[in-house]
Amino acid sequence: MNFFDKMHELTGVSLNEVQQKAVRYSKGPLLLLASPGSGKTTTLNMKIGYLLLVKKVPAYKILAITFSKASAVDMANRFDQFFSSIIKERVHFSTIHSIAFQIVREYFSIHHQNFEIIEGNRNSCIDKKVILRNIFIQNRNTIPSEDEMDELLSYSSFVKNKMISDEELVQKKTMMPGLVEMYKQYEAYKVQTPELVLLDFDDMLTYCYKALSEDEYIRNKYQQRFEYILTDESQDNSVIQHEIIYLLAAPQFNVCVVADDDQSIFKWRGADVRKLLDFKKIYPNAKTVTMAQNYRSTPEIVDTANEFIKRNRNRYPKKMFTENESSGEIEIHNVKRYDLQLNYVVEEIQKADNPCEVAILYRNNNSAILLVNKLFKEGIPFYMKDVELKFFHHWIVEDILNIMRLSYNDSRVDILEKVYTKINAYIKKKQIIHLQKHVSKASTFDRLQEIIHAPYQEQVLKRVKQTIRKLQMQEPYEAIQTIRQDLGYDKSLQNTAEHLRMNEENLFDILNTLEQIAKELPSLETFAYRLKDIEQLMRTSKKYKGQDVITLSTLHSAKGLEYDRVYMIDLIEGILPNNEDIKEDEVGNIEEMEEATRLFYVGMTRARHHLELLTYSVRNGAHVKESRFVQNVRKIIAPEENQKQIGKKNTTQPKYRPILENAITDESELHLGMQIIHHLYGVGQIKSLAPDSIEIDFESVGMKRFMLDFCLNHGYLKKI
Questions:
Q1: Same fold for the domain at 3-99+206-293 and the one at 308-381+547-646?
Q2: Which CATH class is domain 392-516?
Q3: What mean pLDDT is reported for the chain?
Q4: Tens-place pLDDT, residues 479-515
Q5: How many other CB atoms sit within 10 Å of the CB of residue 304?
């Protein structure tokens, strides 16, 4: 009896021909391209069993790397289910950070260097966030907001995972002023004491790479220890993680990389799909096996998703298919207003026979706030895959609540201090300091009038005092409108966004969300309590995990999951794709739009039997456009409706007027290493040229990839 027959008898698992081929391949590098629902985890476990039982490889010689702790535990449990009765040795299932920490610990021990982990270590008195916060305060003389802390944390992680050099850092311009300098100060702080090096999670990867690159003893030891390396979800690996795996696998390169380039959606934390697309350049003798059969979804979902992902140019050509039974077409609903979308989703949830098989997916965590508010009003329980509570502690939310608090007691100097620059009252810092020095129960606005001698400010203070006091008599929605318009909060927000280079649209979206929550609530007090109720519901939703309730999840966190019924919401231009995706696409840089396309594809392929795409025409009183991705799906599932439009298209080539004078319009004028000027990003150097793309490293924003014909036709490039 061969291995596969034995496994079928023992475990009930029957592998198809392609899966068996992937299992049997055991010498040299293998790229296993696994389409959604193709049984990659089962195949990977069977491959490990094959190495143990057929190839007689000792368990300690096999390293299986997964993306997260949860994935490592899940794979280990599934392996035990299959093989615990016949294999007693333990295979090493690990995250990349876990194996990196093991190597770093040994490296520091050999070199007699002490270190301390400053992230996720409850026993440490030094914390990464505290260090970064203090550096921000020293540089900016103010306490960072949550958004600014997120920017600092994300940037420091991105630089390490993308392996951006110090020279490249100098050239980068960032959204937050002084971000590069603060990052450098943070790096210097961690090594300021020679006797003790401070390490965050990303440093584990950096020092692991350093150890394997520079220490021959460490490198040889771990290369000899692990004869076979298998990595799951490799499309999520960052640049430095790919490099570490390469060093561990050398020189035999018995490495099996399981991935799907069409599901690479973590570019923002250092993942690079090009590492997969260039696999045969990195591993010249590599073999590629494509597992294209989908065991999860209906033909309608599989065929549509398969056609949709062809939007992307930078991918492996593959055709996903299924032998599952049909179960109805994908449904698209374009309702008039945003609130009607919520009503529809809730009605569908209430009709569901098995709520645990229903998932509501969205791109941004903010999409969940109003949905949870609606579920709260209807008394519908839910499980939230990734709970994000930053909204409730955002400075805009705090501002609105603080101004409302002033309406009940305007003697509170401590509250006025937090909002005085945002209520259009011309109050100065020294005036606030004066109020703080003299304790009083009188109105702060009356007290200010006693110490100022400018008639214009007296009139303003009287008006602001009256406006704030009348807030307590208004319903919450009207009160927020008053704060925004009469107190000039909107104007203040615009100035803040411009001064700090923040995304104005995102800031106003928070205000608009507060307005939606405030509707139909009778008082400011009930509004404040409603915010606490929503936050508490989200915070405690984890208790419903595994119970018969619906799941709410971002598209990023939904990867790897599957449900009978999936509803993708907020599918409008500006959200999916977002404005940054659209902006980059308009100037020929396709990377952001391709990642957004992959994200949409991930959402579609979570559904087994029923998939609905929801969009709308009006949000917050303004007209919005249906997502181009929804339009694309509409054309795929109903091509006959678009035949008339096709006939109307102008078949002549469009003529473009070059944006730059003396623009480059012929590919022959370009060569590698050439310095050029881009109409939007300025000076850059050509790093790669392909028949359909060009990659340029800009002094202002770093590396960008563009469609070559797009840049030439539009005249976007010019010689220096």
A1: yes
A2: mainly alpha
A3: 88
A4: 999 999 999 999 999 888 887 777 788 888 999 999 9
A5: 21
Query: Which residues are 198's β-sheet partners?
Result: 116
Q: Which residues contact 331 (CB under 8 A, 6 or more apart)?
A: 610, 611, 612, 613
pLDDT for residue 453: 67
CATH number assigned to the domain with residue range 3-99+206-293, chosen from the 4 options 3.90.650.10, 3.40.50.300, 3.30.160.20, 3.40.640.10: 3.40.50.300
Give the model's pLDDT for residue 641.
Answer: 62
Q: Name the pairing type of β-strands 228-231 and 287-291.
A: unpaired
Helices 96-110/216-225 angle, 10° precision: 140
What stretch of H or E contains 622? strand 622-623
Q: pLDDT value at position 489?
A: 92
CA angle 400, 401, 407 (to 5 degrees): 95
Please report the pLDDT score of residue 659 as a whole number.
Answer: 62
Q: Which H or E element spans position 604?
A: helix 591-604
Task: Give the span between the Cα atoms of 693 and 711, in whole angstroms.
Answer: 9
Contacts of 311 (CB under 8 A, 6+ apart): 594, 597, 632
Domain boundaries along the sequence of the chain: 3-99+206-293, 119-199, 308-381+547-646, 392-516, 667-719
List, in sequence order, every residue forming a beta bridge with 360; answer none if it has no partner: 552, 567
> Which residue pairs from 67-72 have beta carbons closer than 8 angstroms and sit at least 24 positions apart in sequence?
67/95, 67/96, 67/232, 67/233, 67/236, 67/237, 68/95, 69/95, 71/95, 71/232, 71/233, 71/560, 72/98
Q: Residues 405-430, buried b or exposed e (16+ Cβ, 10 A)?
A: bbbeebbbbebbbbbbbbbbbbbeee
Euclidean distance between CA atoms 218 and 256, whole angstroms: 22
Rounded Cα gap, residues 651 and 300, in angstroms: 32
Cα 349 to Cα 211: distance, rounded to the nearest angstrom: 53
Indicate if the alpha-carbon torsion angle 271, 272, 273, 277 is positive or negative: negative
Residue for token pair 């290493």? 673
Q: Are strands 228-231 and 62-66 parallel, antiparallel or unpaired?
A: parallel
Q: How many CB atoms lie within 10 A of CB 251?
A: 5
Q: Which of 597, 22, 673 shows the shortest CA–CA distance to 305?
A: 597
Q: What is the pLDDT of residues 669-710, one digit of tens each?
A: 888 888 888 877 788 888 888 777 788 888 767 778 787 877
pLDDT at 660: 66
Nearest to 75 by CA among 107, 110, 42, 118: 42
How far is 549 from 536, CA to CA, in rounded Å?
A: 17
CA distance 414 to 695: 53
pLDDT attached to residue 647: 47
Q: What tens digit of pLDDT does each residue of 575-622 get?
A: 999 988 998 888 888 889 999 999 999 999 999 999 999 999 988 888
Q: Which residues contact 665 (CB under 8 A, 6 or more apart)?
A: 658, 712, 713, 715
Q: Which residues pair with 675 in a beta bridge?
A: 685
Low-confidence ranges of the chain (pLDDT < 50): 645-657
User: What local confidence, expressed as pLDDT, does residue 651 receive?
Assistant: 41
- 76/72 Cα distance (integer angstroms): 6
Q: Helices then strands (H, E): number in the chain?
A: 32, 20
The reported pLDDT for the residue numbered 630 is 95
The structure tokens listed for 549 are: 């309730």
- Cα 169 to Cα 105: distance, rounded to the nearest angstrom: 28
Tell me the C-alpha distance between 79 and 81, whole Å.
Answer: 5
**E strand or H helix that includes residue 216:** helix 216-225
**Kind plus residue range of the DSSP H or E element containing 611:** strand 607-619
Distance CA 561, CA 384 (A): 13
